[in-house]
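Q: What residues go here?
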């Protein structure tokens, strides 16, 4: 694999998109999406908001430190990917982030359950509006994506929809400081890992640094391409398809000499969803069903320092 494929949505119908999705998710688990109908101004707005947030004094960011609902500011070097299946990770990630999730109001029956609560917002004028606008656009696109994904698996086009009536979503505004050229081999902005849930759609700036692991163990750069998003299959989708679609390891090393910013959007099934192998992917050896919320909480509890300190 010399480069990741690009799937273009403009002018393509669901069956055509489905065929491309199945081919690339079988072969690499990673690709670029282009022409997905997101106004460029929305992407520019969320990046501008992220840069303004990360430029705040540390005390202002700590004022909305990550809470028990996994929302707010995640300080540098506060996560170690202990659940990585592809590396023995011992150093924390060299990054900081603002985490936004699906909003759950106090009058919602889900309120108070793990990961079901209100978002936290910094005291920063004109920050919330562009961030929420981008999140709404990505949410709408992902719902539209469910139909060609179902077709790609040989399912009715509405088969996936019931699992996403109340999806679990994360929008993470990440900042990676520059790493020294002579940094140790095991120092990462984001250590080798796979994502937890269904699908990830990543907007990245022009710094580069994202790499995808090939099947032979070597690493393929996924450089920024204007007007595209990097997309990857996550663990639960791979489990759902019995390995037909790959959850491919990836990592970030920011050797650009400057600050790197990225905005990944994680679109996952509802917390109560039971993930069992889809009918078209069942075989002689199938992983047992699992409740997505239980699987997710186990990984968050192991990987994030704020959750360990709260438990203590």
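A:
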């Amino acid at each position: 694999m010399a480069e990741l494929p690009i799937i273009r949505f403009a002018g393509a119908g669901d069956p055509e998109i489905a065929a491309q999705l199945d081919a690339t998710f079988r072969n690499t688990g990673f690709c670029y999406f282009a022409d997905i109908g997101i106004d460029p101004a929305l992407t520019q707005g969320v990046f501008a908001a992220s840069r303004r947030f990360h430029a705040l004094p540390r005390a202002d960011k700590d004022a909305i430190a990550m809470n028990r609902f996994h929302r707010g500011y995640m300080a540098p070097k506060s996560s170690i990917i202990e659940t990585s299946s592809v590396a023995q990770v011992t150093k924390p990630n060299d990054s900081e982030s603002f985490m936004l999730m699906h909003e759950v109001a106090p009058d919602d029956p889900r309120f108070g359950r793990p990961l079901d609560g209100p978002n936290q917002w910094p005291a920063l004028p004109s920050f919330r509006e562009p961030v929420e606008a981008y999140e709404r656009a990505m949410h709408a696109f992902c719902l539209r994506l469910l139909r060609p994904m179902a077709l790609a698996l040989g399912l009715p086009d509405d088969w996936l929809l019931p699992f996403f009536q109340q999806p679990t979503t994360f929008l993470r505004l990440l900042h990676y400081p520059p790493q020294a050229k002579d940094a140790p081999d095991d120092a990462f902005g984001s250590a080798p890992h796979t994502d937890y849930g269904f699908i990830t759609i990543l907007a990245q700036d022009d710094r580069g640094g994202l790499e995808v692991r090939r099947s032979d163990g070597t690493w393929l750069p996924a450089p920024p391409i204007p007007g595209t998003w990097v997309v990857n299959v996550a663990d639960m989708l791979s489990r759902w398809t019995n390995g037909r679609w790959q959850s491919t390891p990836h990592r970030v090393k920011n050797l650009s000499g400057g600050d790197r910013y990225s905005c990944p959007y994680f679109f996952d099934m509802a917390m109560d969803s039971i993930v069992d192998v889809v009918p078209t992917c069942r075989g002689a050896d199938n992983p047992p069903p699992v409740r997505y919320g239980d699987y997710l909480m186990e990984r968050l509890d192991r990987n994030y320092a704020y959750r360990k300190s709260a438990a203590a």
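A: Context that may help when evaluating the design: The domain at 6-311 is CATH 2.60.120.330 (Jelly Rolls). The mean pLDDT is 92.
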